[in-house]
Design a protein that fits this description.
With about 550 residues, the chain is of the alpha+beta class. The chain is built from 16 helices and 21 strands. The N terminus and C terminus are likely disordered.
Length: about 550
């Protein structure tokens, strides 16, 4: 009997205690990793803001060194302000006074006081600048050679929305001058010594705290969240692990195998899906706004599981990029195009297909070779293909410039997709060999309205005109939007006003119907409505 009791205690007690320990260990590591990612995100956002500030400073410094507040300079400041994602204002400083900015001419100047410190980049920093037009708001000013950029501190810290509202912030090193702080920062945290990777992780009372020291930037980013997160996650995990721990050996093993299977990562599922050919393409027509003709289409990757469930691209594309699978997916896209499009181009030799490329694709010459092989197939010519890259994909400037040059040398067109949602500026665009900008749907949605971003599309159209680039407007849903864009020089568009994405047989059928009938149902400028996702008008032959 005693042995039976001892065996029962061993069989149930050890797995139960192990399950509790495992739940707490996983919960602690997971929550600390989330806090550390938040601290690193602050520095990543800081790098983006610093890049935009530097670009603004360089553009202002390039103007003739005459009076800082000429109409041309005020116009340029306004243009920089409008085209920046994070800058609240740009301007000129003389004798510690803001004499003019993208907000206007300030007469004798707004007193600023002396700078708090000078950054490693040589910027004179003022962490708490208040302007008369927004007297209750502190702005962070970076001044370099008389030019200044102003940023709201929330631009550095507004990274996540959470019920427990974690504390995040940025301080200078040395001096520990607060630059942007949301929540609570304890000065005694500065006594913690960072590890070799520049990170210090610790518990302080009821807080999980991560400090991240950047030696290059001489900045300290921090994030802190309640320890209650660990307790809550431990309880959640325990509800799964403790019952499993109460089972005997074989049942425990089987349960753990089931748990691991359920918890398989999305990248693992995608690898299996690639092997099983679960990915396929749909094609959304690109339309000439003046006539409604279908002149091309964008190839859009789709994923249907074996059970028929569709996985959204905004779920699997980021996971593929993070896990290194995106190049395999691009390869699958090219393989499908090689199989599906020769019949399309044979009947419609001027039709053009746009292919989306990721940042990883643009970092390697392999994509140039793959596209070259594609254009050597029967019935597929270089002018039938175009590539699209998001602004995020252009951040590795030298490698991307080289790869894009190789693609353009093949005779393919190149476009920047979702333009206006990333970090590009006028000078930045000039470094790449492209011929088209695609305006993001979020800006198309607001054209002709009173929304704060309603003028962004017009600004992008003006930039494209300056650079001699074509413009494609994405997400057009109403005839009013189409008319507004066309009147301002946009030649092409795509969206549900004209057609939803469709498989190749449907695209071919629509084009054949257009060729047979000579006139079709989709609206040109001024016709149709947002609910019409029907067929084309006069597709390109």
């Amino acid at each position: 009997m005693i042995r039976l009791i001892g065996a029962a205690a061993l069989v149930f007690g050890v797995p139960l205690a192990g399950s509790l320990y495992l739940a707490q260990h996983l919960a602690r590591n997971t929550e600390f990793e989330r806090v550390e990612q938040l601290a690193r995100a602050v520095l990543a956002r800081t790098a983006v803001i610093a890049r935009q500030s530097q670009e603004a400073t360089e553009r202002l410094a390039a103007l003739p060194p005459d009076h800082p507040c000429t109409p041309d300079k005020l116009a340029l400041m306004w243009s920089i302000d409008l085209g920046s994602t994070y800058l609240q204002a740009v301007g000129y400083v003389e004798n510690d006074r803001l004499v003019c900015s993208s907000l206007g001419d300030h007469g004798d100047g707004i007193p600023l006081g002396p700078a708090a410190f000078t950054s490693v980049q040589g910027d004179r920093m003022r962490p708490r600048v208040r302007l008369p037009m927004i007297p209750d708001t502190d702005l962070l000013m970076a001044e370099h050679s008389g030019t200044a950029t102003l940023v709201h501190p929330e631009m550095f810290t507004n990274l996540v929305q959470s019920a427990d509202d974690p504390s995040v912030g940025l301080l200078s090193l040395p001096g520990h001058v607060p630059l942007a702080v949301r929540g609570r920062f304890q000065p005694e945290w500065l006594e913690r010594t960072p590890g070799p990777d520049g990170t210090a992780r610790f518990l302080d009372g009821g807080q999980m705290v991560t400090l991240y020291h950047s030696a290059d930037w001489q900045l300290l980013a921090f994030a802190a969240a309640p320890v209650a997160r660990i307790e809550a996650r431990t309880r959640t995990l325990a509800w799964t692990l403790v019952p499993v721990g109460a089972l005997v050996g074989l049942l425990l093993w089987l349960a753990l195998l089931w748990h691991l299977r359920v918890q398989r990562s999305l990248p693992a599922v995608m690898r299996a899906a690639l092997d099983a050919d679960e990915f396929f393409l749909e094609y959304q027509p690109i339309v000439e706004l003046a006539s409604g003709r279908w002149v091309g289409a964008e190839a859009l990757i789709r994923w249907r599981r074996a059970d028929g469930m569709l996985i959204r691209p905004d779920m699997f594309i980021p996971a593929a990029e993070d896990s290194g699978l995106i190049e395999r997916i691009t390869g699958r896209v090219l393989a499908i195009i090689a199989a599906e499009t020769p019949a399309l181009f044979r009947k419609h030799p001027d039709f053009r297909l746009s292919i989306n490329l990721s940042a990883s694709d643009l970092a390697s010459d392999a994509i140039v070779q793959q596209l070259h092989a594609l254009t050597r197939l029967p019935d597929i010519a270089p002018h039938n293909l175009a590539v699209e890259a998001t602004e995020r994909g252009l951040l590795t400037v030298e490698a991307t410039r080289h790869v894009l040059a190789g693609i353009r040398a093949l005779g393919l067109r190149a476009a920047i997709d979702d333009f206006g949602t990333g970090y590009s500026g006028l000078s930045y665009l000039g470094t790449f060999d492209i011929d088209t900008l695609k305006i993001d749907k979020s800006f198309v949605d607001t054209v002709g309205t009173d929304a704060p971003t309603s003028d962004v599309a017009v600004h992008i159209i003006g930039m494209a005109s300056t650079l001699g680039l074509d413009v494609v407007a994405e997400g057009i849903e109403t005839a009013e939007q189409a008319r507004f864009l066309h009147e301002r020089g946009v030649r092409y568009g795509q969206g549900w006003l004209y057609a939803k994405s469709m498989p190749m047989p449907a695209l071919l059928a629509a084009l054949e119907a257009a060729a047979a009938e000579g006139a079709l149902d989709s609206p040109a400028i001024g016709e149709g409505n947002a609910g019409d996702a029907g067929g084309p008008v006069r597709p390109a032959e």
